[in-house]
Each structure stands twice: as structure tokens, then as C-alpha cells.
Amino acid sequence: MVTTRKPFFTLRALTALLAVVAAFGLGSGKANADTLKVAAVFETPIEEPWVNQIHVALLQAKKELGIEYTWAESVKSADFARVMREYAEGGNKLVMGDAFGAERIARRVAKDYPDVAFTFGSGIGPAEPNFAVFDNWIHEPAYLAGMIAGKLTKSNTVGAVAAMTIPEVNRLCNAFCAGAKEVNNKVKCKFSFIGSFFDPPKAKEAALAQIEQGVDVIYAERFGVIEAAAERNIVAIGNMSDQSELSPEHVVTSVVWDMWPTVKQVVSLVKAGVFSSQDFGQFSFMGKGGSFLAPYHAWDKKLSPEIKKMVDERKSAILDGTFRVDIDESAPKSE
Known about the structure:
Elements: H1 11-24, H2 30-34, E1 37-41, H3 49-64, E2 68-72, H4 77-89, E3 94-98, H5 103-111, E4 117-121, E5 131-134, H6 139-152, E6 157-162, H7 167-183, E7 188-193, H8 200-212, E8 217-220, H9 225-232, E9 235-240, E10 251-257, H10 260-272, E11 291-293, H11 305-319
Parallel strand pairs: 1-2, 1-3, 3-4, 4-5, 6-7, 6-8, 8-9, 9-10
Antiparallel strand pairs: 10-11
Helix pairs in contact: 3-10, 4-5, 6-7, 6-11, 8-9
């Protein structure tokens, strides 16, 4: 507060002004002290769709919930513990990210910082007292996408190019195939696994191989597949985010994972001081707004009214609980 100038305000006005300043923490450092610091540790580059969805949600939390957010990407297993510890010791009260490849490392570090909340993408359960988990439970929109694929295929052969045969990936591929088979009993499904979470050239190569085998509608579970679909002029379905812009003429829709409901819930619990180790997977279900089919965009006029109605009716049944998409995490096999 400036004290060298002749007072201009009345005492009452000045008192009111100071109250406003204090409320916003201006000049006192109070706002910074009270701002929740959140960090994220990602194994893959930010452009990889899976971690990008977490990143986008945390950016939204920065804007709407006032958190301070920082992150590290492409963190190798050898560096994972060090980066996590630096964030935990740097005043971050919430650390998020993708465990999977660094599962044991992440859990071991979390035990050393019981006053920090850790919430990581994981295929297994939470651990007391401070390690919570989430996952991309987007099998429901994957099933809807499969229904569209089953109706659009002319060769009766649909495909999926995915990361690897782990439960999180298997359930998406199996749901996609099940949806296709429900509406077209002649459909055969082909699957390719690239052995990596992020290898666009390899994913493209696998997609091209499937197309040579007759696949004419392909689920791009991994980044790189849509490029192959565009080159060979077949229909593609994106994954994780709305990927229509990658090739509007070929991407009919995308299976979207919206991490905002999860991030909003986690941040709110940490802010309230009531965070606990739990599984936040439910916030990725369609009913919680954590997953959905992207708009049809350029395909809105190409899809028949019958297909749109079919999808809308099944979506409504999923949301009102009268239809449940089976969770099949067995390794899918090509037909």
C-alpha cells in the first residue's frame, strides 16, 4: 500500500478497498500461497491422444478452478521417480499422470509422500493412503462406433489397430467388434497391436496391412491409423479425442474420452482436504459425461437417418441403464 502520497480516500473507503485487496490476495502473496499446485508426469509426448486428454482437462482446471499447473512429458522409466519426487517436494499437493509402464515406481514414490495426493492412470487398484487411479473406460462409445462400422462396411471386414493386448485396450477393441457384429452378422474383425503406446509410423503400417486384407472401416485406437485410411480412401473412426480434423472426409466420428469430470472431482476433493485413495474410473463412463461419440461433422449428411436413429436409441439405452455394454478384456483375435 502506498503511504507517501496525501490521503485521498476517507478512512471508511480505504478500509473497504483494503478488504477487497485482501479478498483477492493482491500484494500479499496470499493468492499464491492458497493456490493448489498440480503437476503431471507423462510417459509419452503430449501429442499422444491418451495423455493429451489428461493434459487438456488439467488446462481446463487451471482456467476454471484456479489451479497452478505444470507437467513433464516423455518421461522414461529411469527418470520417473526423480520427476515425481521433484514435484512432490516442490509444493505440488496433487500429482497426476499415466502409470502403466512405471506402475511400481509410481506407487513406491507415493508412499514416501503421504501428504501429497497421487492420481494415476492404472490398470489395477488404488493404494492407501494416497494413491488413487483412473482409466479410460470408453468401451460404451466404442460399441456405438462399432455399430456404425457394421453398417458402413461393404466388405464385411472391419479392423482395429491398437497399442498392445492389455485389458484397457482389449475392452475397446472387443466392444467395437461386438457393436459391429450386433448390426451385421456377416462382419469379421481384424486386430493389429503395435507393441507401443505411441508409434505413428508403425500404426500406419499395420493399418495399411489390414486394408490390403479387405478392411474398409478401421478403428484408429492408436495415432497414425487415420493417415493410412486417408491414403487408401477408407472410413476411419478416431479415438480419445475428436479427430475429424485429421481427415474430415474419412473420419466418420471418434470415440472420445473426456477427462474433465475426473479431473474436476479429484481437484475438488484435494482442495476440500478430503481426498482419499479410490478408483475414479466411473467418471469416464458415458453416464458421468466422461466419454461419448464425437459429432459426425462432414459425415452428418452422409450417414443415413436409419444409422443415426440406431445410434441415438442405443445411446439412450446405455444412459438410462437398460443396455449394458459387456466388458470383455480378453485378448481379441483376428478372424
